[in-house]
């Protein structure tokens, strides 16, 4: 999600064993990504980067090649943003146990937001737009294991 929000891509290096078999850890990783995409794929496929990639307090200690191998403990305040048509996708990299404030959306108009929901959850969410940002009350149940996507549907601000 971090790469996509920065207009990048993810490259997977899955090499088979000499007998052509895919190693079990690689299978587990690929199946996990597929399971996540079943719920959240619309926040990835055919999306573009938004005005900013996201927000949040967590910083990686290293940069450059192979820095993605660093273990990072992201929080619900670490949010990545993608866009498609009239929809913004705000992905919390940690589970939001309480109300989330997406500061990057404080420039939107309240009348511009039609609905806020979480992908994989069948109900609309309570939300408000304040000078601090878009405040969203998350659902009580997690729809997946990692990276939770809020879908913000927009309309004309009039």
3D architecture notes:
- There is one protein chain.
- The longest helix is centred in the N-terminal third of the chain and has 17 residues, at 24-40.
- The chain is elongated, with a radius of gyration of 17 Å.
- It has helices at residues 2-5, 24-40; strands at residues 48-55, 79-84, 87-92, 100-102, 113-118, 127-130, 133-136, 148-154.
- The strands form two sheets. A five-stranded antiparallel sheet has the order 1-2-3-8-5. A three-stranded antiparallel sheet has the order 4-7-6, with no helix packed on it.
- By secondary structure, it is α+β, with helices and mostly antiparallel strands.
- The protein has one domain (2-154): Golgi alpha-mannosidase II (Immunoglobulin-like, Sandwich), CATH 2.60.40.1180.
Features:
single chain, 158 residues, alpha+beta, Immunoglobulin-like, five-stranded antiparallel β-sheet, three-stranded antiparallel β-sheet, 8 strands, 13% helix, elongated
Could you outline the blueprint of secondary structure elements for this entry?
Elements: H1 2-5, H2 24-40, E1 48-55, E2 79-84, E3 87-92, E4 100-102, E5 113-118, E6 127-130, E7 133-136, E8 148-154
Antiparallel strand pairs: 1-2, 2-3, 3-8, 4-7, 5-8, 6-7
């Amino acid at each position: 999600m971090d790469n996509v929000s920065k207009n990048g891509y993810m490259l997977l290096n899955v090499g088979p064993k000499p007998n052509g078999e895919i190693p079990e850890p690689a299978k587990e990783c690929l199946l996990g990504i597929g399971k996540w995409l079943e719920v959240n794929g619309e926040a990835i496929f055919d999306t573009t980067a938004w005005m900013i990639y996201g927000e949040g307090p967590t910083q990686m200690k290293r940069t450059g090649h192979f820095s993605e191998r660093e273990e990072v403990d992201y929080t619900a305040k670490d949010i990545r943003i993608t866009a498609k048509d009239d929809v913004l996708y705000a992905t919390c990299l940690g589970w939001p146990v309480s109300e989330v404030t997406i500061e990057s959306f404080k420039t939107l108009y309240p009348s511009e937001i039609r609905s806020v929901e979480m992908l994989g959850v069948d109900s609309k969410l309570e939300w408000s737009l304040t000078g601090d940002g878009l405040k969203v009350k998350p659902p009580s149940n997690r729809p997946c294991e990692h990276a939770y996507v809020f879908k913000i549907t927009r309309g004309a601000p009039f």
